Each structure stands twice: as C-alpha cells, then as structure tokens.
Amino acid sequence: MAEFTQNGLFGGIGLFCNQPLFVQNGLFEQQGGFFSGASLAYDFLRTDPLVTGPGIPMTRLSGAMRYNAQGIREFSNENLLVQSNNTASASWTKSGTNVTANIIPGIDGYLMDLETQTGSTNAAIVQSVTIIPGTVVTASADFKYSNQDWTRLLVFDQDSTGVQFRVWVNLSTGASGTVGGSGGGTLLSHSVVNMGNGIYRVSITGYLTTAVTAVFQARATQGDASSLSSAAGQYYIGRCTFKRGGISSTYIDTTTTALYTPRLDYNPTTLQPEGYLMEKQTTNLFLQSNNLNDAAWTKTNSTVTTNAAIGADGVMSLDLVQQSTTSALVRQSCTVTASTAYVFSADFKKSTAGDWLRITLFENTVGGNQANVWFNLTTGVMGQVTALGTATAVVAGVKLLPNDIYRVWITFNLGTDTIISMQTRIVSSDGGSGASAAANYYQGCAQLELGTRPTSYIATGASQVTRAADTMIDNAISWYNQSEGTLYFEVKTFDDPTTVPIGGYYHGSGSNNERLEMRINNTTPASVYFIVDDSVTQGSPQVSGQLVENTVYKFSTSYKVNDFNVARNGSVTPDTAGTVPSATQFRFGSPSFTTNNIWIRKFGYWPYQRPNTDLVSITT
C-alpha cells in the first residue's frame, strides 16, 4: 500500500513502500482505456486507486480524518514516530540500552535492530508524540526473540507516567501475557500477529485521559507483569508505529518527519469510494469535543458516562447522557464572529429511552435568537428545522454511519452576539421543548466551525484545533507541454457552491498575471476558463449553469495558440484567439483562492490538444 509524505504526493520524496497502492506507469496505458495517452492521470474511484506519471506534490501539515472502506471514521494511515525503523538514531532516547542497527532481516525487506540492555532496571527505548488528550491511539512494532522471553510494549503520559496502557509478550512462544491500563490510561485492545520467521507484530490500542505528550516505550522485562528491565536482556525490534485511531493499517517507514497518507474517502452509508478528499483550513471551536464529562461541557440534571458505546471510529468512544428532569441539558458556549454563518455537527445514537433529539443554537445575550433542529434517533428522520428571532440561513442534514450512529448537522447565523451556546436534550416529540425525564442518548465528536456545510471531524482537547488545508502544487512540471495540452477534472462537491468558490485547477507562473485557470465559481457562470498572458487577458470561455452540491461534475479544458476550449458535462465553449501563457507551476485551486471541500475523483493531462468532440465525449 503506498504511503505519502507531507511534502510529496505520488512521485516526490520516498513515497512508495514495497507494495505501492498507486502504481506508476500503470494500467491506464496497458488497458488502453479512458486515460490512454495521458502523461499524468489519477483515478481515485477504484478500490486500488491507480496513478500514472510523476505525480503532483502534496502539502498537509497534519493528519486529518476520513471514512474508510468499512465506513469507519479514522485518520488516514500515518506514522507519528520519526526514524521508525532506526532506533539507533538520536530521535530515540535510550536509557540503559545499547542499539546495534540493521542486524537481521525483518518483514518486507526491512532490517531489525538489536537492543541490548545494561544493568539498569529501567532500561528502555522511548520516543514522544504530541496528541489530543483522550484520543484513541495505537502503538505497534515487530519483535523477535534474542535471549529474553518477556518484552513489554507500553504507552504512557509523559507528564504523569502512571497514566498508561501496555502488553507483555513472550517472544519465545508469541503468547501475550498481562495486559491492561492504569491511572487515566485505558487499553481497548491488543494483538500479537505471527509474521513468520519468529517475528511477532505486537499492537496495543487505547487512550490516555490527560496526555498531551504520549510516549512509546519498549523494553525486555524480568518476567510477565514485571515493570523492571532485564539486565543484559536482548531483543530485536523494527517497523515501529504510533498512530491515532484504533484501525490496524499498513506500516509507513519514516525518516526525519512524521508521514500521513492522502484521504481516500468512502461514503459511510453505501461504502462506495468518493475520491480523494481535499478540504479548506478550518477550526473546531469546541473544546473537549469528544469528552462530555469535562468541565468544558455544562451538564444540567444530566449524568455522563464516558466511552459507553462503540463510536464512529469503531471503538468505545461515544458518551452516554442520562437525563433526570425536564430541565436536563448538555451545553457548551464559545466565541464567534457576529452575523456570520457557522455549522454545528455531532454524532448521536439512540440509547434505551427517548426518540426525539433537539439541538439548539442560541445567542447568550438574547436566548430567543436561536436555531433548532429535531431528529428522531429511532427512525433516522429529520424533524422540524426552525429559526427564531434574528437567526437566519438555517439548513440541516444527517449522515448515517455504521452501528446506527447519525451525524447530524445544522447551519445557522444567529445575529449580532459574539457568544453563542449549543445544547442538546431528548424531548417528547418533534417540536418539543422541555427535556424528557429519565431519557438517555449517546453523543460524541461535536464540532462547530465557520461555513455552511460540515467538514471532516477535528478532535480537540483543552484547546481549539485547526485542520490545515490540503494543497497540491507542482513546481517542477516535467509532464507539462507548453505549446498545447488537454486536462480532465472530475469532482464532487459537498460544500454549498452558491456561497463559496469550489476551486478548480491552475497552470501558470504562480501569479494571476500568467495563467490558464479552470475556475468553478460560486456565481453564474459557474465554470470559467481564464487565459492571461503577460498580464493581458486572452480570453475567458465559460459554461453557464450554477453547480449543485453532492453532484458529480466533469470538466475538461484544452489550449493551443488561438484555440482554447472549456467543457463541462458534455457542453463545450471555444475561444479562437489568444496566446498561450508560460507555465512553471500546476496546482489544484489557484493563487487567489484555494480548493474548497471537494472529492477529486479523476484527473488527467494529455500533452497534446484533443479535439472538441473528445472534450464532449469525456465530460458527458
């Protein structure tokens, strides 16, 4: 499975592991299909997505979430450890341990290091990783016996070492020994997989309630359940991994930086591939977004049990809310920009008593300025959606997730107040106001963000968290023909194209003075092909018609001196005058605005101009 660096996608810096998911020089040409003749092509709608050509570098400053092929919400595969197969490097802290690198063959061509412990009873190798407190994480590594039976894999809170979860493994037999967690550490699951040749892949999944910095630790111990290291104890280790989430995944080899994979997203209801998920930068304004027991959440006549049910991430992460009176509620307040559209979203699930969930967003100063949505947790039916007082722009929706979980969202603009509150409660009916005494429900993964449609979930702790924008920019376009060419772009947007520009693609000098730009506007005409050479506009052929959200659109453009064309869904518009701008850069989006909240389904580039009949055909 291919893995990707932060600063290289599909063909840049050490991207491909031993079993690449994205196959260069791949099946497009061999099959003579849609992308035959393309010098660069992506198809993200396959279960084994294929890429041909050198690729376009990607930048993302941190990992972000998606739905996988099983409909489970997870971080795209990642490895937050650096020098993950080189424990001899300075990135690993060695206490009472000597490391000899690359001693024996490991899995998939990697070599394993030999750890030799000295007389210290606290000998270990460790590496620290920054996380959100309470986030589910998984640590794993390959181990092999040398001279010591028992080895322990441990994850703990750097600031409170008693907060931890761990497993002991007998490397002679491959049997797991004592497992568990302590303090504010909880072990959710563990596994020991026989990889052959005496190598065992050991994994532990859990969470640390308070940890801002989690520590990955390995040591040979004096026996099962012993916390003391074994003097002169030896073991082999390799392919160390630390990732967020509890879903097992393919190993990513790292050197000097953590690595993340691009988000190949699936519809959690139909389990069909959506494409490569690209989103704008946004911030989750809620604190402790998945920890209702924290003081950031006001609980009135409500009792919270944390991690009481399986969440959308496939582990026990949903909180149970039990109401006791008709004034019961769960609430959080935060600061916003006045008279601005925001969207709230969260996971909800029915418990044992109560059907109708009411979500209310209101101004703290004037509580009557509010937006409401009612949702039936039993039937999955959306009820009333209302705006009262100065509240406007109210629209709501729901997405069905596995395990009968619903992701409910509501967009709103409350007015002039800068402090707003969100509260939830179970009520007796659609449109009801007072809480139902003795009712209960599950809630998790709350998010409040700027915009009119919800984006992928961003986990928070004691502080708000910002997800960096996904960008794809190539400043070394070896695949590009300056004289003529054809581009194809197939996308699906989940944003509101009437209020935000969706973006497109750009090839030029890095500024608006020299560009060929396919722009998907938020106004009519919705699709415009801008040609600007040496600050002079050469033309702007366009295809009219406003875009609709959650709809697939196929675009194609071609260029040549005095011959420019733009097509969308089978309709083509030519421009027969103009010179071709110089291009040194290609990107999705443009220098003036970024690509917003889309799935890229397919992209192709041909280093020659295809006839307009082809543009009509490939976009129909």
Description of the molecule:
By secondary structure, the chain is mostly beta strands. The protein is 2% helix and 49% strand. The protein contains 2 helices and 47 strands. Strand 1 and strand 2 (50-52) form a beta hairpin.
How confident is the prediction overall: mean pLDDT? 90
Uncertain runs: 1-32
- Helical proportion, percent range: under 10%
The count of strands amounts to 47
- Specify the number of helices: 2
Largest sheet: 9 strands, antiparallel
- Helix/strand-derived category reads mainly beta
User: Strand fraction band?
Assistant: over 45%
Our measurement of the CA-to-CA distance between the termini, rounded to an integer number of angstroms, reads 32 Å
Gyration radius, to the nearest Å?
27 Å
Write the layout of secondary structure elements.
Elements: H1 27-31, E1 40-43, E2 50-52, E3 58-59, E4 65-67, E5 73-75, E6 78-79, E7 93-95, E8 97-105, E9 111-117, E10 124-130, E11 137-145, E12 150-157, E13 160-170, E14 175-182, E15 185-196, E16 199-208, E17 213-220, E18 234-244, E19 259-260, E20 264-266, E21 273-278, E22 282-284, E23 298-300, E24 302-310, E25 316-323, E26 329-335, E27 342-350, E28 356-363, E29 370-376, E30 382-388, E31 392-401, E32 405-413, E33 419-427, E34 440-450, E35 465-467, E36 471-474, E37 485-493, E38 505-508, E39 515-520, E40 527-533, E41 536-539, E42 542-543, E43 552-559, E44 564-568, E45 571-575, E46 585-588, E47 598-606, H2 612-619
Antiparallel strand pairs: 1-2, 1-47, 3-36, 4-5, 6-19, 7-10, 8-9, 9-18, 10-17, 11-16, 11-18, 12-13, 12-17, 13-14, 15-16, 20-21, 21-47, 22-35, 23-26, 24-25, 25-34, 26-33, 27-32, 27-34, 28-29, 28-33, 29-30, 31-32, 36-46, 37-43, 37-47, 38-39, 38-46, 39-40, 40-41, 40-42, 43-44, 44-45
